[in-house]
Structure formats: C-alpha cells, structure tokens
Write a structure and sequence with these properties.
alpha+beta; eight-stranded antiparallel barrel; 8 strands
Length: about 140
C-alpha cells in the first residue's frame, strides 16, 4: 500500500517540475569585458573594482562590466539577471539613485562595431547609453 501512495506523489512532483526546469540560464554573452562611455575612463575601469569609491571618484562618465554600471553620478545599477529577447537582451538590475534602490529593466542591444547600448528611460533618460569596449 505504501508503494502505491509514493508512486502517485512522484508523478505529481514530476508534473510540477517542468516549470522550474524550463527557466533559462542567464545570458551574459553580450558582455566581452569592460566598457566605457568615455575612452579616458578605461584605464581606471580596468584596474579598479566595480562600484568602488576609487572608481566612482575617478570616472568622467559611466562604465559597464558584467557586475553592472558604475557611475560618477549617484546612479549605479547592479545586474541581477539577463535573458535574450527579440531585439537584444533584457537585463534585470537593482539601480540605486542617491541612496534609494529600486528594481529596473534595462534594454540592451549590441552593434556590429562591438558597442553596447543600454536604454532605460526611468534610470538614464530617453537616450541610450552607448558603451565602447576598453582595450587591455
């Protein structure tokens, strides 16, 4: 009797599992290194830790790494997840502005020249940020 009860429970558990196993893994393939809006920021961006005070204090404009976007302003976005979309990628991030954190969705596209564009009107305004890969 005990065996007959455990089999239906296993079947039920297996039926509920596909929802959990069909979640796609994060796709960070669009990030090939460290990127900057201003090429003069590359040297510091390649040597300082993302979101560090040293990096924030030394930047002229935003830089992008796998961890997120560090800004000399009071806006920083830490990436949580990324998935491929029809137009590029959708990145879920925790963005902090002047000490107040909120979730944000960033639209990411890449160009044939290797640049990455980030668009989020709520976080960065109506124009896309266009990042160029820093050379090591």
């Amino acid at each position: 009797m005990r065996r007959f009860i455990s089999i239906p429970l296993l079947v039920l558990a297996a039926a509920l599992m596909p929802a959990a196993t069909t979640l796609a893994e994060d796709d960070w393939s669009f990030i090939a290194g460290t990127y900057a809006l201003n090429a003069d920021d590359c040297k510091l961006a390649l040597s300082a830790a993302p979101f560090s005070q040293e990096l924030v204090d030394g930047l002229a404009q935003e830089v992008l790494t796998r961890e997120g976007i560090t800004s000399p302003r009071e806006v920083h976005c830490r990436f949580r997840s990324a998935e491929k979309s029809d137009t590029g990628w959708k990145v879920q991030a925790d963005c902090e502005e002047m000490g107040e954190a909120s979730p944000a969705e960033l639209a990411v596209t890449t160009s044939s020249d290797g640049t990455i564009s980030i668009l989020s009107e709520d976080v960065y305004g109506p124009d896309a940020l266009k990042f160029t890969l820093c050379q090591k």
